Amino acid sequence: MFLRFVFIVSAVLVAFCSSAATLTLDSLKVGLVTYTNVTVLGANATDLYFTHAQGIANVKLKYLTPEMQKRFNFDPTAAAEAEKKQSEADVLYQSTEAKAFYDRSRAAAEAADYVPPTSEESLSDPLTKNSLLGKAAPALELDKWLTDKPVLEGKFVLVTFWAPWSIPCKKALTELNALQRKFLNKLVIVGVTSESEIPSDLKVEFASAVDSKSKLSGALGINSIPTVLLLDNKGIIRYQGHPAAVSEKKLEALIAKFSADEKN
What is the pLDDT of residues 111-128, one digit of tens each? Predict the structure, then answer.
C-alpha cells in the first residue's frame, strides 16, 4: 500500500508541477485536524496530496471546506464515481494477490510433500507427485485365483505382472521363485496375468491370479512386462518397475528396515 501511495503522489506531483506553480498554505483544516506549513503537491478527482510540518499526507477533497473544494475544482459526482472504480480495483487487486499467495503456498507445500525419501535401501525414488511410490496400494481385485488365495496381511507383497508367452517374463521366473522360497514367511509373491491358465511346462512357485480385462494393470499404468509392484507390510508401495531391481540383498534390507520401523 505504501508503494502505491508513493506512486500516486509522484504521478499527481508531476501533473501538478507541469500545469501550475507550487501552492503553499500557512494552514489547512480538514475536519478536526489542522495541518500547518502546507505545500500542495497535487490533486485528482478525489484526493489532495501535500506536505506539512509533520510529513506528507493526502486527504479527501469532500472533507475540505467549501472554499478549498472550489479552489481544487471538486466535483462530488465525479469523485463518487472515481472512488467506486478505485474500490473495485482494490478488491480485484487484493483477490489477485490472495490467490497468488495461495498458489505459491500450495506449490511450496506440494514440493515439500514430494521430496524423494531417498536412502541406501531405496529401489527407486519418485520424481513427481503422480508417482505411486510412498502411497497406499490399491486393493488387489482380481477375476480368478489360479492357486489358493494367499494371506497378505502383515507381509511384504511383490505383485508381478507377467504373461506366459513373454520370454523376458519366463526368464524372471527363476529369480522370483527363489525369492519366494527365501522369504517364505515374510514375503508373498502374487503373479497377475490376463491369461486364463499357466502352461504346465512353466514352473511357478508363487500365488497366481487372472486379471482378464487388465483392470488392475490399467489402473496402475502398467505398460510393459515383466513389471513388479513391491508393497511393504503396511501396504505402502516401495517400488514399481522391472523385477531385476528386487534382488535378494535389497529385499532383505527393505524387510529389515520397515519391520524395525513398525516395532518403533
Answer: 555 555 676 667 777 777
Angle at 100 between CA 97 and CA 102, to 5 degrees: 110
Q: Which three cell numbers stand for residue 187?
A: 514375503
Q: Which residues contact 127 (CB under 8 A, 6 or more apart)?
A: 116
**How far is Cα 151 from Cα 186, in angstroms, rounded to an integer?**
11
DSSP state letter for 198: -
Q: Reply yes or no on domain 144-263 having CATH 3.40.30.10.
A: yes
The C-alpha cell at 253 is 534390507
Grid coordinates representing 179? 525369492
- 198, 122 contact by CB (below 8 A): no
- Distance in Å from the first CA to the final CA of the chain: 52
Which pLDDT band holds residue 12 (cuts at 50, 70, 90)? Answer: very low
Confidence band of 109 (pLDDT split at 50, 70, 90): low
**Which amino acid, residue 112?**
A
- What is the per-residue pLDDT across 66-92, written as a single tens digit (0 to 9) for each? 998 998 999 999 999 998 998 888 788
